[in-house]
Amino acid sequence: MQNNTQDHLVDYLMACANGEAKGVERLYRATSARLYAQLLRIVRDESAAQDCLQQVYLRVWQTAGRYDAGQAKPMTWLSTITRNIGIDWLRKRHRHVEDGGEALDMLAHYDDMDAATDLAHSTQRLHECLEALSGDQRRALERAYFEGLTHGELASALAQPLGTIKSWIRRGLERLKVCMSSGI
Amino acid sequence: MHEQWDLSDPDERELAAGEYVLGTLDRNQVAAFEALLAVSPALQQHVAAWREHLQILNDQLPPVPPPASLWPRIAQRLGVGRRPWLQRLGVWRSLTAGLAIASLSLALLWYQAPGQPMIPGDAVFVVLDENQVPGWIISASVSGELMVQAVQPGDMPAGMGGELWMMDDGQPVSLGMLPSHGEARMIMPQRLRAALTHADLAVSIEPASGAPHGQPTGPVIDHGKLIPMRNSSVQL
After folding, report:
1. B61–A4 CB contact, under 8 Å
2. Which of A35-39, B78-82, B132-136 has the highest mean pLDDT?
3. Inter-chain CB proximity B56 and A75 less than 8 Å
4. B227–chain A nearest CA distance, Å
5. Contact B157/A1, CB-based, under 8 Å?
6. How is chain A split into domains, by residue range?
7. Which residues in chain A touch residue B18, judged by CB atoms under 8 angstroms apart?
8. Using CB atoms and an 8 Å cut-off, which of residues 124-153 of chain A contact chain B?
9. Which tens digit of pLDDT belongs to each residue from A146-157?
């Protein structure tokens, strides 16, 4: 997202912190499509993603005063809240399944989502940094990030030894950091 | 479990911050990491930097506008809906309210511009925002010309504007960007003219240069159909 748009987001967050209805409405218009896409990727269910999106803007409305522009870009702050809410939903759902509820068909749409993801290289930098990752590294990072999986859970989900998973994650993180820090 | 995990080593600490943000540490590791995080501004900076680095995984996702019905629900929950009674009326009745406001807008235009031609065209679609405030009046003539009058388009993020879409066999086709003020004319593609009076129209918020790849990506401001004007020169 361009910097000038992010500056506007800071203004909208400040307006939210002041309790101005216009602020949250503008923030919603500017960011809801991106946060909704993120929730769809995490929870993989439209109705649940909409419930979660509602919680996201409620939390933003209540906590915008705690946003610190020196700590995080506004989109990163919003995405962090969104991810926490989405992964909380996944964990609750998981517990529900363990308690004998209906099974969650987690993998059914995985290939589709992967394909959609591949289409969306919105900036050159983003493209370069994702290309810097091997397929295994990228898959491991994405599944950990969007599905809230620990090293151990990832090893089971991807049917790989724990050591291999840890190495994919660490090398992936290192490459991402180098690319994002220097632009190489 | 994490044999080489040594938080006294600076490189190791930085990578652990990445794994912490990514969420792959187990419960004991999270506890150990957070104990250190609480007292280490340097580690807090690493965590903030990793959040920005990993934001790339979100940035790669194509935006998906949530359904237009979601915002009124959220506004109501937040207590920011300015006219909650309108939202409770349901879609059909708020459409009626919208038409009443549209009639009022037309009456005002009559009043403010005596001697000027009445809104030309044979059918009209008034684009209302979530507070039922008219953003644009779009009128269409049977010849395939659309005339757009900006009324009070809502505030947009910098570099964004309203884009008009027509559904053609289930696929959105862009009819162009709507003006932020004043008037604009648009010519309908020939092949779409026959469908104009019964097709679904929508307006979404898009980059001012037009939606990428010709597909809507932003939130939908309003959707509806052209309503034929009584006494129009041609019966649609």
Report:
1. no
2. A35-39
3. no
4. 27
5. no
6. 1-97, 122-184
7. 173, 177
8. 126, 129-130, 141-142, 144-146, 148-152
9. 999 999 999 999
For A:16-75, CB contacts with B below 8 A are 21-22, 24-26, 28-30, 32-34, 36-38, 40-41, 49-50, 53-54, 57-58, 61, 71-73, 75
- pLDDT, one tens digit per residue, over B154-190 is 877 777 889 898 888 778 888 888 988 888 888 777 7
The dihedral through the CA atoms of A164, B26, A175, B7 has a sign that is negative
CA distance B185 to B199: 19
As for the ipTM of the complex, it is: 0.86
Give the C-alpha distances (Å, rounded to integers) separating B22 from A58, A84, A157, B19: 24, 11, 16, 5
- Give the model confidence (pLDDT) of B220-234 as tens digits: 888 888 877 765 544
Token code pair at residue B73: 């629900």
> Residues of A1-27 as b/e, b for ≥16 C-beta within 10 angstroms?
beeebeebbeebbebbbeeebebbbbb
Residues B60, A117: C-beta atoms closer than 8 Å: yes
| Residue A17, C-beta contacts closer than 8 angstroms, at least 6 positions apart | A64, A65, A67
B62 → chain A, closest CA residue: A120
Question: Residue B126 — pLDDT band, cuts 50, 70, 90?
Answer: confident
Burial class (CB in 10 A: 0-12, 13-18, 19+), A28: buried
Whether the full predicted model's pTM is greater than 0.95, yes or no, is: no
Query: Which amino acid does the sequence have at A137?
Result: Q
State which fold the A1-97 domain adopts. Answer: Rna Polymerase Sigma Factor; Chain: A (1.10.1740)
| Number of helices and strands in chain A (H, E) | 9, 0
Q: How far apart are the C-alpha atoms of B114 and A89, rounded to whole Å?
A: 59
Chain B residues whose beta carbon lies within 8 Å of the beta carbon of residue A4 = 158-159
Å between A153 CA and nearest CA of chain B: 9
Q: What is the CATH number of domain A122-184?
A: 1.10.10.10
